[in-house]
Amino acid sequence: MMRRSNMPTGKLRLLAGCATASLVLGATLGSAAQAQESDVIVVQGFRSSLAQALDVKRDSNGVVDAIVAEDIAAFPDLNLAESIQRIPGISINRVAGEGRQITVRGLGADFTRVRINGMEALSTTGGSDASGGSNRGRGFDFNTFASDLFNQIRVTKTTSASMDEGSLGATVDLRTARPFDYGEGLTAAFSGQIGYNSLSEEASPRLAGLMSWVNPDETFGANLSVAFSDRTIIEEGFSTVRWQDGNFRSVNGVACPAGPDCASIDTNSRVYHPRIPRYGRLTNEQERLGITGGLQFRPSERTTVSLDALYSSFDATRTENFLEVFFRSQEGQIDVNSVTLNSGLNIMDSGTFDISANANGTHPIRSEGRYDELSTEFTQFTLNVDHDFSDRLRGNFLAGTVTSDFDNPIQTTILFDAVGDVTGYSYDFRNNINTPAIDFGSLDVTDPSQFAFTEIRDRPQSVSNSFDTFAASLEFDANETWTLSGGLNFKQYDFESREARRESTNGSIVCALPGVSCPAGATGLPITAGLFTTLTGFGNDLGMPTGNDTAWIVPNIQAAAAAAGIYNIPGTVRSGNQRAVSEEDLGAFFQADFNTQLGDIPVRGDVGVRYVETTTTATGLVSGTEVTVERSYEDTLPSLNLTFEMSEDFLIRFGVAKVMARPSLGNLTPGGSLDSFNGPPFRYNAGNPGLDPYRATTYDASFEWYFDNEALFAVSLFYKDVSSFFTSSQSVEVAFSQSGLPANLPPASSPLFNLIQAGGDPLVEISQVSNGGSASVQGFEVAYQQPFTFLPEPFHNFGFQGNYTYVDSDEIIGFSPNAYNATLYYENERLSARISSAYRDAYVTRRASSSTGRDERGVDSSFNLDFASSYMVNDMIDLTFEAINLTDEFEQQIFDAGNLPNVYHHTGTEFLFGIRATF
Fold first, then answer.
1. 870-887 burial string, b = 16+ CB within 10 Å, else e?
2. Over the stretch 649-687, which tens digit does the pLDDT of each residue have?
3. Contact between 787 and 711 (Cβ < 8 Å)
4. Please, which of 185, 225, 435, 753 could form a disulfide with 544 given CB 3.0 to 4.6 Å?
């Protein structure tokens, strides 16, 4: 269902029209442009950054794209992921209104390697459950860094023997500023911005500064840069936490299953209803601090020593408030008084219900509050030494260490449940599938006396990643045609994940917790004045029906946690997330670079081979016992890159290589993870520390026409033949009591826990990831870039940059078949302005459990529009204005063959006013 193209026809035509018109004009007026080539044109700002990036691409042996900072401490976008998405073949996913991870040519974040100042690194953070939660994988979270800290991003989509292994998608190189970048003397820059968000109506400061000094002899330099931002983002919308079928207590006044209408909506009907229909608000408070420092020495003309340091902290709190109904696994407490069915979508698209409490005192109708404290600390030190032993022999030495520690010490959920029977609750999706009409019937959602404090959860967790790297290489100019190089490298990578759950120690029911005394006969603690606040003003620009509630009581998390004594309860280890992986990688390479002639055609490139040994030690819990498994494997990875200079302005590139990416961290644990919320059967996915890496052969071709100054039209083709892809082995279903899983594994309040407590023995589907067969991904990219200098004034100051990517695969998911980026800019001596768009198709994140397409999960298509501008007051001062997400694009996760709403949230438009000074 989500594999089709959802690209808006009008937007696609607009992009195609702009590109076609620009090419026609460029070809028609090309002679006029050539006539002006003798004129000296000095470019600056955004146009200058595009020109520098084009030079990087043109001079490379492989398929490379780059983004260069417009000026000192002036990167083109607010977020690194937002910048990288401008590159052909790259799409991003967003969390709290900003980019988090990237997908390159159809392969997700786990398949892309990120290096900072030449050293592999990994930074992770957390998010809401709907946005992926805590990152325990190999994917890099770009939202942990301020973009002001970096002056260049380089994305290499092909590979050479001299490049470290580990990527099937691309290698992303991030580079911070170094003193020798700025030359002799003192260089300083400062920027300040105030942001305003249309939904949160909050002001957010953003500050950055850089200072660099190099002595007159340019033999020593030092620099320091600092970036800080404080941001408040509100996310509002509707969600369902997916859809399912179920067996209700009665339908149209007759008890089930005997009632004549029960069969039309029971579990055999495959007619779905929302699991947890709810409106909610998420408030994100984020602080970023980034510091970079560098020292460079040039003790002789032949030696350069660079020491780089990078520190980044990303601290956040997130408060989630939802007004919801738990249909999930509680249909037996619900009477269906009326219902309408949508036969096209196979859902109950409207209904009226009477809802009763559960036997344990909880109630399906709830005001849920969750509070998270999250922090990521990233520290990196790298030492890089370049030395020329002679005019022909050069050497490089790199040593570095990097740590990334993510901590989520508080993840507390408080549940206020309705008291007693609620009659007349209704939902209606018929007018708008994304924002249904919801009425809570006899329940006054602003009256605390109609609720009780019934349940708690708290799940502290952490993730740590570290790299230690040592690498040495030599490069020798054998003659004018051949340059030979070789080297060794050693890399130690350590990963550790920890999680505990306090509700698994004494249960989640408040009245059963030690030290808590509930009134006789009460289902929970009374909601007194200090335990709650009232959420108001909900639904601005959401488009929900006017009759919906815009205010309801929400938990005061800190007061409620203190009343229940949550933080005094020791946590029970969550075995699925209590795991570690340690990898030692020893590699060697030999490479020959060449620059020769094939007849009259200049040909350059490289050919080589890389050999690497990997030793993996994986630790996890199996039935409460820590188990460690060690294994080793070897890879020999040849590669070839060719660039044919068919003319001065037309290049043809070819590349072929064997590549590998190591298994996902979650799959390597000897233990496993249990889904206690979806079933029966409930799924238990066992890890497999014996997994082989992903191995593939990649083929690339690129045709690049640099038809004018600062101009490019390029078409790139790619094909990746993955010989070892992971699939789940055949599953087996057994009763929980026969599974060998510990009885305390299901978390309290989960459907599996409740079934076991009620005396049931539900089925568990046990599966293990194993090495699978082949898979492939293929596609092409089209890129066009040109300043319109051939046009008459004032249009000659305009320019365009755009690209389109098509990706296809029958086996791999998580990518958009169609994606494009387009930027139209204007730039003269003082004014710079641009408007940028980014589109990607809908994509699948989880396959359906059957051929009907039911239960498939994905993300709907998206179109983001941003604006940025600056005005040069004088040679030192610029004024800036930016608008992010101009159209207030919604994040929309979808479910099932009918593209049913799973998440439909928005974060508003952000406006930033600023000043930038350079000295």
1. bebeeeeebebebbbbbe
2. 999 999 999 999 998 888 888 877 777 877 778 877 778
3. yes
4. 435
Token pair in block for residue 837: 């768009």
Ramachandran angles phi, psi of 19, nearest 5°: -65, -45
Q: Which residue type is seen at 331?
A: E
Contacts (Cβ under 8 Å, ≥6 apart) of 788: 22, 25, 795, 796, 797, 798, 799, 800
Distance CA 794, CA 826 (A): 10
User: How many of the other CB atoms lie within 10 Å of CB of 596?
Assistant: 12
Structure confidence by residue, pLDDT tens digits, 5-44:
444 434 333 333 333 333 333 333 333 333 333 333 445 6
> Residue 401: which H helix or E strand, with range?
strand 393-418
Q: What is the DSSP string of 79-147?
A: SHHHHHTTSTTEEEEEETTEEEEEEETTB-GGG-EEEETTEE--------GGGT-S--SS---GGGS-G
Question: How many whole angstroms separate alpha carbon 207 and alpha carbon 801?
Answer: 28
- Number of helices (H) and strands (E), helices first, in the chain? 8, 51
* Bond into 794 cis (ω within 30): yes
β pairing state of 798-808 and 843-846: unpaired
Q: Which of 289, 291, 295 is nearest to 308 (CA)?
A: 295
Select from 821, 859, 818, 824 the least CA-distant residue to 842: 859
How many angstroms separate the CA atoms of 844 and 841, rounded? 10
